[in-house]
Amino acid sequence: ILTLAQTEASSWAIDVPSSVKGLLGSCVVIPCSYNYPNAKVQTFTGIWTNDGNQVIYHPTESKMLEQYRRRTKLLGDISKSNCSLMIENLQQNDGGPFHFRIELGVSTAEYIKCSLVVFLVNTGEPNAIDFSAHEDIKEGQPVSASCSVFHSCPTYPPAFHWSHSGEQHFQAQKLHDGQWKATSILMFRSNRTDHNKLLQCRVTYHGGKHQETSKTLKVKCNNVIMHGLICAFTTQNKFKHGQTNFPKNLER
After folding, report:
1. Start and end of every Ig-like domain (predicted)?
2. Most Cβ neighbours (<10 Å): which of 6, 117, 154, 222?
3. What's the burial of 18, exposed, middle or buried (CB within 10 Å: 0-12/13-18/19+)?
4. Tell me, what's the pLDDT at 41?
5. Taking Cα atoms as reference points, which of 21, 48, 45, 44 lies closest to residue 32?
């Protein structure tokens, strides 16, 4: 169960998840926001540290642990209450716990250290794809298929690739505890050539990991005779142009 931790010190308030799930090799964003009612303070310096008080993020890169240089970034504007941290190329030893503090003004002697703890739950493989599509469809019918995945890297959302051409729409939904839901919707009009073909959705995550899933389309043709031709996918019968001795189940 993931809960929000809130710390108050001298009228400060800060919100972060107690843990965030991330995909190894990808990036993870730890959402963080704070409130400080003293409008006189104009300069804020946001710093993230590990449990040994070693700096994993600082605006001055030379003050950071070497293994976190060029891998961590503070998102948004710290002066506008955004203390969210992004960690790139998530590694197994990035599990935390991590702490956040703010230094006020130009003096490092004056700061608020927030006694919050954030753990990262690192997974080697992404969750299964949620794939929705009607497999049994009629020829000429509009088809809508959706492919959804969960992730924690909103800066670089997953990329979707469909095996079928059509109109694509992307949706991003913010959930809780640093999790996001990314959905790709494909819309196309079915054709008899789609019968028994795989409709495949492939997802590539930031960092290179990918996964895919598919369904087999079953196209039911309209039993309408036009110019001596008939579509016969559903009956397994094939006819030549001009043939008139149709099976009884197809006679009108």
Report:
1. 126-218
2. 154
3. middle
4. 65
5. 48
Helical spans, DSSP H, in the chain: none
CATH numbers and ranges of domains, the chain: 4-123 (2.60.40.10), 130-220 (2.60.40.10), 221-252 (no CATH)
Instruction: Go through 189-216 and write b for each residue having 16 or more CB atoms within 10 A of its CB, e for each that does not.
Output: ebeeebbebebebbbebbbebebeeebe
Residue 143 tokens read as 């088809």
The whole-angstrom separation of Cα 202 and Cα 163 is 8
Residue 184 near residue 168 (C-beta atoms within 8 A): yes
pLDDT, tens digit, for every residue of 163-204?
A: 999 999 999 999 999 999 999 999 999 999 999 999 999 999
Sheet holding 167-174, edge to edge: 130-132, 142-151, 180-189, 167-174
Give dist(CA 85, CA 76) in Å, integer. Answer: 9
Give, in order, the Cα–Cα distances in Å from 214 to each of 145, 159, 164, 201. 11, 16, 11, 6
Show the 3-state SS of 39-89: CCCCCEEEEEEECCCCEEECCCHHHCCHHHCCCEEECCCHHHCECCEEECC
201 in helix, strand or coil? strand
What pTM does this model have? Answer: 0.78
- Say which DSSP state 128 is in: P
3 state SS of 142: strand
Phi, psi of 78 (to 5 degrees): -60, -30
Distance of alpha carbon 95 from alpha carbon 21, whole angstroms: 10
